[in-house]
Amino acid sequence: MAKSKYTKVAQLKTVEAFRERLEELEIEIPVDDEILTSQQGSPVGEPFTIGNFKVGNRYCIHPMEGWDANRDGTASDLTRRRWQRFGESGAKLIWGGEAMAVQPDGRANANQLMALQSTRDSIRNLRETLETSHREKFGTSEDLLIGAQLTHSGRFCRPNTHQLEPRIAYHNPLLAEKYGLDPNDDSILWTDDDLEKLIDAYVASAKIAHEIGFRFVDIKACHGYLLHEFLSARSRPGKFGGDIEGRSKVLTTVIDRIHREIPGLMVFVRLSVFDILPYRTSTEIGQPMEAPNPYLYGFGASPTDPLNYDLAEPLELIGMLKEKGVAAVNLSCGSPYYNPHIQRPAIFPPSDGYLPPEDPLVGVARQMEVVRHCKAAYPDLPFVGSGYSYLQDYLPHVAQAAIRDGWVDSVGLGRMVLSFPDLPASTLIDGQMNRKLICRTFSDCTTAPRHGIVSGCYPLDKFYKDMPERERLVQIKKG
């Protein structure tokens, strides 16, 4: 594989060197000079309100699938370990822990959690494990907000083996080519009747989440999974396609029914606020697939320039979500499957990816700017931002500045907390970043599950370093 030509963040030894790199790239990312603790007035340490709940600080843990639950959708010891560490992290907003399928065929892998009657006790135990670990370490969990993320994986379902078993919203010719699907096979399309049953499943899972103590549910609409794919289903006939009202109808119907049938349960949405063209898997610099003009297969993608975003429809959708009582929105973009460099900026690609076609800092700045734009349009709606892990040593410096400047309300952490699980506490209490634990975006936590191995930080977490699966992962990467 060719090597990346970009300066690594780890090589930027000072805040000033980091700023100089941003200037070279001609991108705007706000940066503080030093890490502030809560006692020193860090903006990240300030509480904020979502709905009627006062969240203790501005760090959020993103939902991350571990591919490590039991085959029946219950939690394993590995799952519980991750949730315990989320509780010990010091973050006060836990955005779902990880995605839970609302029905068995909707799993992204055969070892994904499910939110069903048969798994309710196990999922309750996960929440209690997280809450207890937080309370034992920090003295209280009264300001800790925990939710459950509900999903159907749609095009990326693998419920039984590593083999795709897609259920799609519409035929996308580029993704059909990329994943070897027959563009004339209508058997994998959702019917309207099937979607009505799926909506029932979402509501049933939300009821379970509420009954076992989760304060909110996130209706996942990001990363190429089903409800995100529906947002670009312009070619789909009937009530669940066509205009933005139809394309968002599954999502908004689920939201309406939860509010009607489960009063008191907050509804959040994690949204891929824009998409771009799919990219080809390669060992070289990533190249986009050829697109028809106009390009009508991306939500928030410019139809005439689909390597850039167009926020007209996404802003309209966010307004619809706000009107329907969605209490908070977590903004991401794209998909880890077909354009990972925009979704999770990294210097080292996963095995099914490609070398980044831009400095990953450009991808971070793009996500931050889009969230800033959405926040300006809806200042009263709480927003969580994504894409911060690639900032590495300077993540807290940027988080503080972005929150102070009103770009975002809460900073989300994903793979960074797999390597450095107590980053929120370390920065807010001690004002320190442990350089030995900082995620350097090696992408092992993505490459592993792409090959049926449980996800974790194999380079930096000794627990995973010592697992026999690590040697298999090493061989996969060599190949």
Structure, described:
The chain is an alpha/beta fold. It has a single domain (9-478), classed as Alpha-Beta Barrel (TIM Barrel), CATH 3.20.20.70. The chain is 35% helix and 9% strand. It contains 17 helices and 11 strands. It has helices at residues 15-25, 77-88, 120-138, 173-179, 192-211, 226-230, 244-247, 249-261, 312-323, 340-343, 360-377, 395-404, 416-419, 423-430, 444-450, 462-465, 469-478, and strands at residues 48-50, 53-55, 59-61, 93-94, 99-101, 145-151, 216-219, 266-272, 328-332, 383-385, 410-413. An 8-stranded parallel barrel has the order 3-4-6-7-8-9-10-11, surrounded by 4 helices. Helix 2 runs parallel beside helix 3 (120-138) and helix 5 packs parallel to helix 8. The longest helix has 20 residues, at 192-211. The protein is globular. The mean pLDDT is 97.
Task: Summarize the entry for a quick read.
By secondary structure, the protein is an alpha/beta fold.
What helical percentage do the residues reach? 25-40%
Characterize the overall form: globular
Low-confidence parts, pLDDT < 50 over ≥5 residues? none
- DSSP E strands, number: 11
- At CATH level 3, the topology is TIM Barrel
Radius of gyration using CA atoms only: 21 Å
Total number of distinct structural domains: 1
